[in-house]
Structures are given as C-alpha cells and as structure tokens.
Amino acid sequence: MSSIIRCNVAIVGAGLAGGLIALALRELRPGCDVRLIDAAGVIGGNHVWSFFASDVAPEHRWILSPLITYGWDSYDIAFPAHGRTIREPYFSIESDRLDKVVREKLPPQALMLRRKVAEVTPTAVVLADGDRVEADGVIDCRGAGDLSHLDMGWQKFVGEELELAAPHEAPRPMVMDATVEQVDGYRFVYCLPFGPKRMFVEDTYYSDTPEIAVTDNKSRIAEYAAARGWQVERIVRQESGALPVAFGGDFTGYWNSGGKQVAKAGMRAGQFHPLTGYSLPDAVRTAAAVARLTDYSGAALHEALHGMAASTWGSRRFYRMLSAMLFKAAEPEERYRVLERFYRLDARLVSRFYAGHSTAFDKLRVLTGKPPVPIGRAIAAIRETN
Q: What is the pTM of this model?
C-alpha cells in the first residue's frame, strides 16, 4: 500500500550537490524537515573530489571542513617543456567520508536511499513503488540533464587507488602530468599521495567523445606506475567518469530539459566549470545559498536556483571560449600546448581561473601573446562561442 510522506525540502539525488545542500540545511536550518532521496544505497557514489583552497570562499569552508580526508600545501604540474610546483593548498574528499558525515548529521528518517524516483514536480516526488513525497519545495540534483542542448567535449577518466610495495616518496599531488603519450585528445595523469604506500592515479583525457576504454586506461595506469618505479601490490578501488566541457549551447533549453519550473542544483543546473567540468565549487556556493533562504516553496526555490545558475552561465563566456579554442582550434595531439602555456602564468591567476573568478586583467593576460593554436582557427572558435 502506497503512502504519503510530507517534509519541507525534498532533495532528489544524493550525490555531491544533494549531500552538501542537506548538510548545509541541517547546520543552518535544523528545524527544516529534509528528505534526501536516491536509488543508490550510498551517498556520493564512488568518487574522489578535489579542490584548491581558493575555490571555496572562506565564509563557506564550514560546509567542507568535516568532509576533507587529505590536504597538501602545494602541488606539481609537468609538461614536455615546462614543470613547476605551485604553492596553493589542495584538498581531497572521498565519497565514503561524505556518506559517513551525512549519516551522522541527518536524522534516520531524512535518508530515503534505495528508492527509485519515477517523477519529480516542483513540490512532489513520486517513487517507483507508488509512495509519494510531498514537500514545500523540491530540488533535483540527479546529475546532468539533456546534454544535447550544449556544445561540448569531454573530460573523461579512469582512476585507481594503488597500494604499493614500497613508499612512493612523492610529497605532494601531481595535478597534471602531461609528459605522457598524447592519445585520444589532450591526455594527462593525475596523482594524489594518500599515504606513504598509497597513491591515487587517474588517467585523464580531454576528448571529443565520452566513451571510456577502461581496459586501455588501466593498462596505461600500470605503465605509468612502472615508469615512476612504483610496484603495485593491489588495486584498492577504481572509479571512472566523463565530465562535460562546454563551449556553447542553449542554457534555457538545458535547464528546462531537467524539468521545467523544478528547482535544480549541481550538474543538472549546469553548475560546472566550462573548461574543467568540475562542479564542487559551485555545489558549495549553492548549498550555502539554499541554507540562507527563508522561503522553501517550490516556486521560490526555482526562482533562486535558476537565477543563480543563469547568472553563473552568463558570467562564464570567457571559459567557454577557451574550451572552444582547446577543442576546435587545436589538433587533438597538440591540445596540451594550450595548457602548457597557461601554466607558465602567475600562480594567483591560475588559482582565480580554477575558481571561476578571473579578473579582466587575467583574461587579457591569458589571451596576450602568440596563441598556441592556429590564429585563424582560434578566431573562428571565438566567434562560435555563446
């Protein structure tokens, strides 16, 4: 027999965006009755999310502080003709930690896991088993909407957490090692030292297609580890994914594809950096904003979150333009040159870039000088950006 469950805010999708909103509401609005709904049995899936200290405003760090599992005071990058260490704190969050903290902070009735969703409206969630959650307002955080509304490429990856036979002696993350063979677009390897004998290694591609050749990626990770002199005793866990890298598109069409008049957050709201595909900084800002609202009706949530997402999309044309140059102006095997040139710039500019806060001077500096792609193609790519 089906039942009706009533609450103030129903959050559909217990990934990063949904989990952070639930935590922020619990902290600032403890009297708000929240339901976090997901078909999976865990919160956050199987992921590692990383961020630079400058990605998150100081007044929002309280949201992430309980979730951080690893931190370093600097990171490395490496290209065929350039390498450097950048003095910028860097942090990682594991999905297991997000799951643990959400379960500790939220009351048991707030978690509705292993519940498949059939329909979402601005004020209700219909479950596949016939149960219905009626809320003052609903926020849909179930991942990407209809990506056919966007012009884009992909950042795709396979990552493995490796247990090594001996200490790796790497003191800090290698955020981008592009000295590797360039295949399937711009390829780099990403390494996070989780312990003296633990290393997370991710094989990453800026590719024209989202398809992931897991077997090839795993072989390349093994080759990379061997080249670094790391003897792998076992693979602790593996993850993979494909993130959109946007260089244009119809934001309104994309928003409506995820449910017209339904409030949305995270990837479903188009809240991701157009060049990196990363959504954590936007997810933190959104969670903080939602927790400070006073009206949680479906209409008010939609107005607030649509306004935030539309404003963010409008402010990021510069980054979409750079994505267009990377994918449309550069030959796939030469894309690394765009990033190699970028990483020669001032470290503070690099930090503001990743946070999506580039100044007018930053933008001018990025575009000044001889472009690492053919000028004609670069101009054509810029003209196509929207």
A: 0.94
